[in-house]
Write a structure and sequence with these properties.
Elements: E1 4-11, H1 13-16, H2 24-35, E2 40-47, H3 51-64, E3 69-73, H4 84-90, E4 94-95, H5 97-108, E5 121-124, E6 127-132, H6 136-144, E7 145-147, E8 153-156, H7 162-168
Parallel strand pairs: 1-2, 1-3, 3-6
Antiparallel strand pairs: 4-5, 5-6, 7-8
Helix pairs in contact: 2-6, 3-4, 5-6
Bound molecules: adenosine-5'-triphosphate (ATP) and the ligand Nc1nc2c(c(=O)[nH]1)N[C@H]1C(S)=C(S)[C@@H](COP(=O)(O)O)O[C@H]1N2.
Adenosine-5'-triphosphate binds near residues 13, 22, 134, 135 and 136.
Length: about 200
């Protein structure tokens, strides 16, 4: 069986050096557990903001661990040591600009500084790599989007487009919990869900 494999990389100098406890990986894990109804396996890595190390980790998760999806958190800003997007672009085969554009749109609903995130989405081989900002709360915000008090979607989170993207990359079928995030798929790409 082709089980969904997801790589999670927390990029943080202070968490990697034990100055504070990493909250990136736990926040990613918690959100994925709430959002995915498809079984999945995760590979986690905590690395400092060092471009060669981030590149090496991305390549390892895609090329050796065969992750279908890799999510990074941290290091997307303009500061000198914020190099996650640079590392991601360096290992990319193709760019998926819509993910970065949509994440900044979503994040602007939460913080005016969202424009400072250089986050990108790319494809390496048959894997989708997405950069999320470092604030642990931004993980849910960007993946899930913004809903009103009745749960109606105001701005769609980027994860809504991930299942179809993985499908197009010939990865496993992904089902989500619609209470958290409803996957967008064109009619022609849907499975018969009458059962
Ligand atoms: N892995 C993490 N665990 C807990 N909090 C984090 C983590 N990464 C970032 N944060 C919080 O989000 C803020 C913005 O994240 P950013 O990626 O810009 O980190 P930073 O300021 O470069 O510091 P560092 O790399 O040492 O985490 C941090 O200043 C910190 O308060
Ligand atoms: N959803 C969301 N996006 C966000 C933020 C946030 O708190 N929530 N913080 C912003 C800030 S303050 C910065 S500097 C950039 C880059 O953050 P990073 O270096 O932590 O990746 O992301 C931005 N995007």
């Amino acid at each position: 069986m082709n089980t969904l494999r997801i790589g999670l990389i927390s990029v943080s100098d202070r968490a990697a050096n034990g100055i504070y406890q990493d909250q990136g990986i736990p926040a990613l894990e918690a959100w994925l557990s709430s959002a995915l109804t498809t079984p999945f396996i995760i590979e986690t890595r905590l690395v400092p903001d060092e471009q060669p190390l981030i590149e090496e980790t991305l390549c390892e998760l895609v090329d050796e661990r065969f992750c279908h999806l890799v999510l990074t958190t941290g290091g997307t800003g303009p500061a000198r040591r914020d190099v996650t997007p640079d590392a991601t672009l360096a290992v990319a085969d193709r760019l998926m600009p819509g993910f970065g554009e949509q994440m900044r749109q979503i994040s602007l609903q939460f913080v005016p500084t969202a424009i400072l995130s250089r986050q990108v989405g790319v494809i390496r081989k048959q894997s989708l790599i997405l950069n999320l900002p470092g604030q642990p709360k931004s993980i849910k915000e960007t993946l899930e989007g913004l809903k009103d008090e009745n749960g109606k979607v105001q701005v769609a989170g980027i994860f809504a487009s991930v299942p179809y993207c993985i499908q197009l990359l010939e990865g496993p079928w992904i089902e989500t919990n619609p209470q958290v995030v409803a996957a967008f798929r064109p009619k022609s790409a849907r499975r018969d869900t009458n059962s």
